[in-house]
Known about the structure:
62% of the residues lie in helices and 0% in strands. It has 486 residues and is an all-alpha fold. The chain folds into two domains: 1-165, no CATH class; 169-385, no CATH class. The longest helix is centred in the last third of the chain and has 60 residues, at 426-485. The protein is extended, with a radius of gyration of 35 Å. The chain starts with a helix and ends with a helix.
Amino acid sequence: ELCCSALKSIFSNEDKHGGEVTVEAVRLITNSVKIHNCQLHPDSIEVFLSLTFDDDIGRSQSTAKEKGNKSKKRRWKQVNEEQKSMLGNDKKLSKKELIAKTRHEVREDLKVSSFAVDSAERRRKQTETLSAIFETYFRILKHSMESDVSRSLLAGCLRGLAKFSHLLDLDFMSDLMGCLKKLASSGDCDSNGINLKVSERMQCCIVAFKVMRNNFDALNVDLQDFFIQLYNLLLEYRPQRDQGEVLAEALKVMLCDGKQHDMQRAAAFIKRLANFSLFFGDAEAYAALVTLKVLLQKNSKCLNLLENDAGGGSLSGLVVKYQPEATDPNLSGALASVLWDLSLLSKHYNKTIASMASSISTMSTVQTQTPAFIPNISPQQAFRELSFGQEPFKLSEKPLNLKKRKIRSQSCGSSFLLPCMDMANENDLMSKFQSHFTAVRKFKENERLRIELNKAKASLDLYEEYRKSEGLKKEKRRKLIEIEKK
């Protein structure tokens, strides 16, 4: 941690040392990655994210030079005016004082000019730094495509590529997109033994889209394969295992940003996101519903999925029947389905998700009227808003109306069980939850203390054995000494 913080400080304070130390540090990290065959701690390349590069160095340097020249001219004018006034007012002023004053002004000008770095030299250093960084990133990508290897640096590599993709040479774009496509499809049957995590595969898709958007005019790449991977990764995602922040970023970059999607693909993602929201946590469900809302707003024809017609939606494409198990979103036939999932989500225990689902359900009926209020936030903001670590779970604030339901007499002949919420008070339920989780925490604390106690006992037993062995050795030595004396 100390080394990483020192390197980040060097990279962020580049103006103090002129950039030469930055180039040397990046070269050393690159050589270390090469020597250890990409088997290093992830923080060793995370420090690259602290680097900053100028897009147009010449323009900024020219303006700085102009400002410097103007300030120099002003200083020389002030010096000349002061000298003239001194000569006019005090003729007894010696030449030594004038020379000393002039030297002082020249030293100040030299100090100012010494801190200004030449634009060509600065561009040369930044070019060397960039080439070393991208060499490291491509080495990590090629190493990650091998089977049965550790990929500890892949996550940091993908984050760095996403940040510096606009600075990459266009000659390497096709190779980069090929590597990303192969890594994103590593979970398929023909992945040649490459098994990446779901979050890492999503990051590959995110980097591909960022590279494409930063170089849209120069690249002609079909991103359909990455859409297919995201469509299938939504089924493989697990909340406790994978990173929800990466999922939210993938939804924003690939589905929310950019232009209007193909109608078949948009309908497939809308249907899958609605189904996805039923089975996962609050944060993931809210991010998925926000993305679903954006897709419906961008693709107005997909609003027909909200119509509950007999036999499915009012539109149909090449595939007449909805195929939920299809791997290609264009072949799923989602236009023939209905978003019945929103009806269940409108009864969600979380009021935020329930209101969002209800608002989306009414989008088709309020097209000509004032649209329903839906928070205009990104999937990432939605995920952070309902993350378990930031906002604790809250029960509904509405008091239960126990008089609403009455228990019928046995002569009625109906035998059913009332819900637990109708039989219990909210305060009692909260107290039970608190006591339950307090007991769970006490059990865990007790288990931790027992483990520490066992370790302490084991260490004490070892110490007692050591003392006994040392006592026996001393007793033997004493007896030998007595025998020798006799």
